[in-house]
Amino acid sequence: MYTAIIIVFVLGYFAIALEHNIKINKTATALLLGVLCWTLLIFGHPSIFPDLDTTTAYQFLSDALLEHIGEISEILFFLLGAMAIVELMDAHGGFTIITDKIKITKKAHLLWALTLITFFLSALLDNLTTSIVMAAVLRKMVKNKNDLWLFASMMIIAANAGGAWSPIGDITTIMLWIGGQITALNIITHIFIPSMVAVIVPLIIFSFKMKGVIETDFLGSKDEDEINVSHLEKYLVFYIGLGVLLFVPVFKTLTHLPPFMGILFGLSIVWILTEILHKNKEHKHKKALSISGVLQRVDSTSILFFLGILIAVAALQTSGHLAQLSGILDANFKSIYTVNILIGLLSSIIDNVPMVAGAMGMYSIETYPVDHAFWDLLAYCAGTGGSILIIGSAAGIAIMGIFRIDFMWYLKKISLVALISYLCGVAVYYMLN
């Protein structure tokens, strides 16, 4: 059963990757994968946990599943809340405030502008929220499918790289920061340049592929529902929505509550605001501009896809597969560069959170002191390595769901460039240190 879990996990990933070939939605595959992995854990507990009797094993696995579901729910509620806020801003035409100010029509120049905005915004928000916000902007500005997918892929790389050099930009940097392995000033000063390199390299490569101009008819285009929104309402919802998103890391620092609580707080604020703004409007117009209407536009399948993937990874963590993997890395590779590069590569397949958690458990502060190069590299590699595959990061999964990006398309068109940029960032860190 121990080996069977690995086989099922690999087959499940192949089915997700070949979604368009086998004509089975990746969300259905991900959910089945998650359930099967835990089912194999239950039936295979005598060989996986030989020291536990049946009753104890069932209780242990039940408790472990509930614990993982709690952690996964934090991410899912965060994702749902952030997507709802962004959709509400979009329903009010808020993103035309940004798109109307961007007069760039040349594709290559626009790619640079939006990528750099994403890179710095993800350091202030986080890579997941930023990817959702920038997806809404892209929908307004880019209509050609191939261009849209390439722009969106660059947003994934930029969001992950931007989150890697900020203590609040990625869940893994937050883990290291709260755990005391890194300090805020150190991670910014040491990882900023490698992260910037990881963005500039693919930007240069893709710039040569971006020929021509964006059709100007689509710049600043308005939605049908926007006709019923006043200038004041549009600006009010947009800036308050952006404000509550930016307030999430502040909320976390002040209250020490997890980020999803900050998102729910922000969602309640914009919900109340829109209820007050539109209370006297007709039901049809009011519904289109309220949370109840907006939630119907939120892509629930991407949230369920996220759930399935994270449940499957949680099964590998519970069964000890990830701990064993960390042990193999530690035993066979002594260089901190080699270990972290491999962790980054594995983060494109397996969620980076358990990988980083495993590394934090393997190495103490006594082994590698605060702000040691090992922790710096771990933050960079775990953050940016997820860009190599589209399902390797929260930002990638969100963008994949929003734009229906094909896994194999990303693998063929983006993965090699993302890998090169990832390794270039490591090389720059090495030269600087």
Cα radius of gyration in angstroms: 22 Å
Helix segment tally: 23
Low-pLDDT ranges: 216-226
Main beta-sheet annotation: none
Instruction: Specify the overall morphology.
Output: globular
Explain the overall architecture.
With 433 residues, the protein is mainly alpha-helical. Helices cover 75% and strands 0% of the residues. It is built from 23 helices and no strands. Mean pLDDT is 85; it is low at 216-226.
Any descriptors?
433 residues; mainly alpha
Secondary structure layout:
Layout: H1 2-17, H2 19-22, H3 26-43, H4 45-48, H5 54-91, H6 96-99, H7 107-124, H8 127-141, H9 145-164, H10 171-179, H11 184-207, H12 231-255, H13 259-277, H14 283-288, H15 291-294, H16 300-319, H17 321-332, H18 336-346, H19 352-362, H20 373-384, H21 394-403, H22 407-413, H23 415-432
Helix pairs in contact: 1-3, 1-16, 3-16, 5-8, 5-12, 5-13, 5-16, 7-8, 7-9, 7-11, 8-9, 8-21, 9-11, 9-20, 9-21, 10-19, 11-20, 11-23, 12-13, 16-21, 17-19, 18-20, 19-20, 20-23
Short overview:
With 433 residues, the protein is mostly helical. Helix content is 75%, strand content 0%.
